[in-house]
Write a structure and sequence with these properties.
With 425 residues, the protein is α+β, with helices and mostly antiparallel strands. The chain has helices at residues 4-9, 11-20, 27-64, 69-101, 139-146, 151-158, 167-186, 201-206, 231-235, 293-310, 357-362, 387-397, and strands at residues 121-126, 149-150, 164-165, 191-192, 198-200, 224-226, 242-244, 250-259, 278-288, 315-319, 331-339, 344-353, 365-367, 375-376, 378-386, 405-406, 420-421. α3 packs antiparallel against α4 (69-101) and α7 packs across α12. The radius of gyration is 27 Å and the shape is elongated.
Length: 425
Amino acid sequence: MFDIKAIRETPEVFDLGWERREIAPQSAELIALDTALREKKTILQDCQSRRNVASKAIGQAKASGADAGALIREVAELKGRMTGLEDDVRHLSGELNEKLSRLENIPASDVPNGTGEEDNVEVSKWGKIPAFDFAPKQHFDLGENLGLMDFEGAARMSGARFVILQGGLARLERALAHFMLDVHTTEFGYQEVSVPLMVREAALFGTSQLPKFKEDLFEATTGHYMIPTGEVPLTNMVREQILVGENLPLRYTTLSQCFRSEAGSAGRDTRGMIRLHQFNKVELVSITTPEQSEDELERMTGAAEQILQRLGLAYRKLILCTGDMGFAAQKTYDLEVWLPGQAAYREISSCSNTGDFQARRMNSRYRPAGEKNTRFVHSLNGSGLAVGRTLVAVLENYQQADGSIVIPEVLRPYMAGKEVIDRDD
């Protein structure tokens, strides 16, 4: 969310940024609204000042025995006028805030222009795509053939886009999550956090899921929403806080279940675990100063890459173009893992720097050393990784001709030393 003062001062900067996202110029309309709002506020303040003067004069007139009728009528008229002005201020302020809340973040200068995913730019590749002497299967065929992945059973109780994992696959999913957390906490300095899975509207507004993406959320009848990502509670840990500048950056990680309605994905990935309503994800969040955030994005993305590398999974790193970047992001890297069953790269992590966009919505600030004034923090978030999609990648990349799955070496300590998952599991 943006400061209307900044838009007034540099409208061309904002219009150019929105133009890069293929959004029509907004500054003129916003400035006109803000001008009308400030004019109404000025008139209201003048009326309040005159009412105070007149009210004081009424007291003085009564004390001296003078006629206060004209002053009393003036105060009554001012009161009626002020009521209308207060309504105008509320209406204009609400309209301005609503428009500001729906505006996407301005892309960083090094983000490539583009209209969609075909315009994303490949930064690098890692790993060797595995070669098989048989036709590799997709994960759902592998899991169902093992008798350890059940979509029909999940559908009977919950409907489409749910899954039941059993035995060796359930344990492998848990092993992946614990491995990720161990790496992020012991090697990259992230503090593990256990977070609420339900939050209120203000938390989702703070991280920009509301108001624009309400249709993708599951809403309870208690005024709560199920979290779509661990980013929401982790980032909101600093909402309405003034942090000590010397303590930044703060780095948090969590393993949480996430819930998404997938409202815009009709017909996409209808089979398998790629796009579920409920899934596990290890999330990374960093809270930094403005000077730290660019380097922190590289660091965070590198931490996610380390998980893929240690699992031996080939992947590529993309910088997203302006047309494919998320609502709140200034800059985003996507990591796409190779899936032999699909013979394609698929997203497994997205790491974004939002600048102070979320901080302004949450009123999250810090005080630099030796300064009285505060500044907005920068917030970053990334998947470190999506656990279900990582399980998909392990199944497809480590499959054998007989349908069994070799367990990556780094996961074997979490699997009681087991090396292979087969039908006996």
